[in-house]
Amino acid sequence: MGNTERLRRITDAVRRAGSLGVADLAALTGASEMTVRRDLEVLAEQGVLERYRGGARSLLLRGDEPPFALRAQEGLEAKRRIAAEVAALIADGESVVVDSGTTCLEVARALRGRRVTVMPLSLHAVNALAEPSGHAAGTVTALLVPGGRPRPGEGALTGPLTRASLEALRFDTAVVGCCGLGAAQGLTAYDLDDADVKRTAIASARRVIAATEGAKLGRTALAFVAPAAALHAVVTDASAPADELAALSAAGVTVRTVGTRP
Amino acid sequence: MGNTERLRRITDAVRRAGSLGVADLAALTGASEMTVRRDLEVLAEQGVLERYRGGARSLLLRGDEPPFALRAQEGLEAKRRIAAEVAALIADGESVVVDSGTTCLEVARALRGRRVTVMPLSLHAVNALAEPSGHAAGTVTALLVPGGRPRPGEGALTGPLTRASLEALRFDTAVVGCCGLGAAQGLTAYDLDDADVKRTAIASARRVIAATEGAKLGRTALAFVAPAAALHAVVTDASAPADELAALSAAGVTVRTVGTRP
DNA sequence: TCTTTCAAACATCAATCATGTGGGATACGT
DNA sequence: ACGTATCCCACATGATTGATGTTTGAAAGA
Question: Most CB within 10 Å of its CB: which of A106, A195, B4, B183?
């Protein structure tokens, strides 16, 4: 779909300006007003913006995270590389709990077909691992679904059922994503329920790997999950600030950076 | 996709004959050999049959149930009507657990957008209820995902995690499907794990509705789930044998038959 | 070795989707 | 209430995808 780029530009423009007219957006994107309207309808359904007669205003005023569908596209290449590196750290036969989020979704995809037991914490990842992996008979990846209520849009499973599912099991490895990470502030997330799930996942795993884009390093989000010392390894990309990496390393975390180029 | 019909015919022909050549199937379906080969590949991936050089042999020799994708298409109209009737029996605000199986999948679809809390016991139904219902903001249907291991193909969630999820909750209504049902033999299923889940679901609901095609009435499958008296209502279609319906009625079950014609 | 069968590559057709255009309906400002 | 700008509903068009068939070189089995 080539409309993704246009949706992104509309989202950005509206967010930057606060609100914008349909005509402005049509001029900006080069598309017709009708197309812009259809786009706005889509974005309004995703909760990105709110429509009013003549234009739209952004609902993501501040540090709110953009909707899943958009984030999943951004920096896909880097996420894939990070995911491949994480998958390489996981041995056959292991049991792994994989967090929600777009980076971890790629990790789930990278584990598809591997001889491992996986419990993904988001519906997106569940779908990525269920069935369509091909050979229905010779399926080697064992899939475990946790209970919970899916958070709208994210598909992230949360709540007491998720907690109970995690507490009933012990994993070799937990792969967690984050919204912010640093040696000083530890691992943080935007959503309180998510943070709770992450914490429980970390508690039921022997080894914890954080998978995150470099841009998240040094940032802090609302909900505290765990101190940096709770992590055994961090896999990130080359865009990560060097001082943060050094600080994490000094805190005893194994740091792995995947190149931005092949 | 118009290929469904051809897939069904190939499946039937191979099952009837035990094994068949590619040329025979091409002649039977009127399609080219290449298309038949591609179909066989698909069916082999679904575990329906096994390929060998020159043809394929059926893997569903006995009373095994055909794969989910095929069953989901058969009698869709009747299933939709049954599902609509079941949905009409459920009041707004109720919490409902919906069993796995193709008929119950339609029930889940029928509940989409209703102001109810739903816990579906299969991944297919989870996907039918998650997100793409439109308005991300004004989503009224509360979705609860049970834990468990999805049974390959079926997507039916089973095992201790599923059991634990069910035992942690109490529902107003359980909608269960079945592979066999009768006043004498009770409600039965093919799969032992499924039967266990069904039993647990029934135990944690105040009211139990069985939704099933008429053809299942009077049949018996391997695993016993519950006596007919455990059911409060049965919704089926006009193809159900009258004597079975009468016997169920006599056992104190409310019987509802939806017409085959609108 | 030779024949049959298979699968990758290309061509074709239909279906679907994205987009644009016109016209009638609708909402907002005055 | 009126007028105008805006919106949405159809329908048309171009692009993309998916299913099917044909060809052809490779591979399996006799």
Answer: A106
